[in-house]
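Comment thread on ticket #2218

A.B. wrote:
> Attaching the input chain for the structure job we discussed in standup.
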Amino acid sequence: MPTLLIIHHTPSPFMQDMFEAVLSGATDPEIEEVEVVRRAALAVTASDVLAADGYLLGTPANLGYMSGALKHAFDTFYYPCLDSTRGRPFGYYIHGNQGTEGAERSIDSVTTGLGWEKSAAPVVATGPVTKDLRERCWELGGTVAAQLMA
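C.D. wrote:
> Ran it. Output below, let me know if you need it in another format.
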């Protein structure tokens, strides 16, 4: 059974709302035969990443960059997973109080280096979590998970 790994840093209510919507989309009953595994960015291991077939990444934009926790996760598994995970699909979601461009660039840079394939448009937001934002997060989770169905 294919596995979708959600690597997230969820330190705020806004990030929690987005995470729950992504998870709900990924585990929708219409998505069959896909195991969804959740790991906090500070707890994910190279083994978790190697065992997965696709990825969803969630981070706040901190000082114009991805969170230190997600950066730490990438630092932990980048080289052990570099050759073995090329071509795997991924998506991401970001919440920031101001600019998110640096966080987007940093995620795009690392995932390009890993050779991962962006399989859904990122969900990037500032301000409160709205119904529309929750729906976009749900679609992100569902889209990436559906691509893993056999």
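A.B. wrote:
> Thanks. Noting for the ticket: The first strand starts at residue 3 and ends at 8.
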